[in-house]
Every structure is written in C-alpha cells, then in structure tokens.
Structures
1.
Amino acid sequence: MDNPPPLPNNKNPDSELNNEIAEGQPPQPAPAPGHVAVPIPEPRCLLYKVPKKIWKIDEDMHKPTYISIGPYRYGENGLDSRSQVWKEWCKNEVVKKLTQQADEQIAPVPPTVIDPNSIPNLWDNCFRWNDILLYGNQLPFLVVREIYKLLHPGVDPNQKVGKVFADSMLARYTRRKLTNPGNADSVLHLCHKLLAPTPDPSRNGGGDGVVKTGQWRRATEYRNLRVKFKKREISSEGKAQCILDVKVVCCNVVKIPSFDLNPESWRLLRNLMLLENMNKHLGGHVTSYCHFISQLACTGADVSLLREKGIIVHGEASDERAAQKLCNLCDEIIYDPTHDYLKSAWDKLEKHCRHPGWLVWAKMFGYKDWKNPLVWMATLAALALLVCAILQTMYTIKTYQDQAKHRART
C-alpha cells in the first residue's frame, strides 16, 4: 500500500488525531504562565508500541488474524487481500473526514467494499470480534466514530459503538450500563472503563495499616483453613456488575463472579493489563484481578475446586492445562501491590488464616489421608478405646472412694 496522504499545510501537526497517538513518552503539562492558575486536563490514554518482552511471550496473540489497523501496523504484510482493500477504503474515507482534504485527492471507493452485504459481514465477523481488542491494533476512538458514521449515516456513533461492545463483546465480563463512551480514547480504553470494579464500602474496611497486598494462597489451602468460595452473580443494578467485583464476607467467605477462561478472555485481559502498564494514570485494577486469580488457581486441584463452585469455567483438556494458562496470565506484566483494590480482602483472609485455631484445624484435618474411610474407622476405634479407658478410670476411682467411706463407718 502507498504511504498515507500527508496532512494539508494549514493543519496543525499536533492535531486531535496526532495527540491520540504517542510514539514516546507522554506529553508534559504546560507550565502555568506567571501565577495564573491553569486547569490541568485529564491525562489521555495514549497508544504505544507493544514492548518486545511482551511481544516475545506469545507473538501470535499480538498479531491480527484478518484486519491490520492502528498506527503501528502500517506496512505489515501477510494478511488477507480483502483486509488491504478495507484498509485502503478506511484510509481514503476517514482521512478525508478528519483532515478536510479536497474531493479530488481521494481515490474512488472500491465497489466491493461499499457493498451493503460485505461491510456488515466484515465488521461483525472479523473486525469487531477478534482484532479490535489487540493493544497494538488500536485506533483513536475518534477514528472509530468516523468509520461508524460511514457505515451508518445519521446515527450517533458514541452510543451505538459503545453499546455494541457493552452488550455483545463484554456481556460475559460486565453488566455495567454504558454512560458516556465519548470519554474513551480508544476501544480498549472503553473496555477498561466498563471493567472497573464497582465501588464497595466494604473494601475500605480491614486492611488498616497494610502497606501492600501479599501473596495470595491457593484455593485448596484456603479451603483447608475453612475458607468458603461462593459464586457471585453480576447484574446491571446490583453491587456486583463485572468480574472484578470480588468480595470477602465474614472474613472466611469469598464471593467471586464466574470467569470463563477461553482464548478471547485471555487475550482481553492481557491487552488490558498492557494498557494499564503503559498508562499508569489508569490504575491497575485489571492487573490486580489477574494477579489474584492466577495465584488462587495455580494448580489443577485449585481449578477443579473453583470449577465445582461455578467460579471458573474453561474448555481446556484438563484442569492442569487451565491452571497452566492462568499461571502465565501475568507474565512480564508489572504489578504494583501498594495500589491493589483487593488489599483489604487479602488482609481479611490473611488474618483468618493466621488465627491459631484454624492453623491447628488445618494441621489435624488438612491431610489427604482423611479421605480414606479406613483412617476414619481407625480414628473412631481409637476414640472409642479412649472413652472406655476414661470410663474405666472413673469407675475405679469411684469404687476406691466407696470402699474408703465403708471402712470409715466401720
């Protein structure tokens, strides 16, 4: 494909489109002139290249399967020819809208692309469901809005485009209603906003004085310490609206929304964590959740336990395969334990698990040998002998006391 047409001479290089794309470091706020207060704008969610160390972990995960878009995808080969035609059409039409170029500078739109049957099929089956969530395949949201205007003239793109993702792509992860999608800087940024944990006052309780979140225990270890796991239902109006709404009740009951482990969810979470790592002002709630679930279910036994509770759903060949994928979920991702939204939940569970009574319980009844019925029979027999010995001792003492009283009378 030829190089994209240059911006017109009267266009400021620091235009709205260019400000959405960052090749290097985020721009610094302008200094205030004199002593006049200048409002600081909200930091933008900038687009960077995928770091090489992340790329090398799984190169196929970061490669688009059909549509290659975004500022860092230009000039890549190997995709379907129809993708190149679609890209050419988007370049011509969207750049015309954004830069106000003259009509004579725009090549005619290929008729095979503007066919009403080909565009929805391309949008629904390829563009929306697979490649649009790749971090390295992101476009500024203003470009996505212009594309939607071309596909559906006269329709508000903010609500419609956002509703597509909220009701279709993210339906298994969140029930949160979309309020203002225009605030998102990219499609992945919109997904990040929808997957923010629901405000919960109980998260403020506990964790007093805790500087950072420590290592989460395995699910089976929590079970041995009398911690119960329950599935938490999510809804659009309830206190749990997305999969990140993990809650600890009564210090030993953990309520976790169901998580469907599949290639789509794995890719979504990896790209959201990468977005957080590259834009620190977004926070790290997705990274904190992935850190929690990957440590909680790091073995096949842990996955089996959570699967029986309905908390984890997967289509892998075995629970061990699913656990291996969860273990690799946070590879090369920077995690900040001092800004973990689950800090208070970890503190509550840790205080429960370190209680001496529960530690003794775990030592006595946490062994796998207790699953053998012969062990239980032997234990009951030993208890019966112990009771008989106690009764025999009591009767012996009573008999001795009765004899002593009889001698005293005589």
2.
Amino acid sequence: MTQLDIEIEPEHQAIGARLGLALVDGDPDRVDAALSEAATAGLDATLAILAVQTRNLVAALMILQGLEDTRAVFARTILDAGLASDG
C-alpha cells in the first residue's frame, strides 16, 4: 500500500465507510462508535482507515470540483493550519 508497508484490510475499509456514512447522516452516536473503533484498532489499522477516508474524500472532491479546485482545498487547509499555529 505505502512505504509504511501497511495493508488495508476489509475491516479497515468497513470502519472508514461506517464513519463516512455516519457523518453524511449526521448521526453523532454512529460517528462516535466508528471513531472508537478506529481509536482502539491500533496504529497500523488507524493509518489504514485514514488512508481509506482520504482516498474517498479525494475521489468525491475530484468528481465535484475537479483537479485544481481539489488541490486548492488541501492547500488552503495547510495554510489555515500554519496560521493557526502562528496565532
């Protein structure tokens, strides 16, 4: 999968998908449950879940906004983080 040599297992995909659906549905109990699963899964599993979530986010943004606007979303987030750490 990556240079970290972490495999994305079906269980990681399922947790990532449950978290995404819970967020879409606005269900805080399901969001909490999915985050709890991720938090207790261990570092490698949590990184795999993060990779699934990131892949899904990028895919959705690319469909909705295209390449340049998707890149701009992430660039703005990096800038916002830099400003927040300065303040």
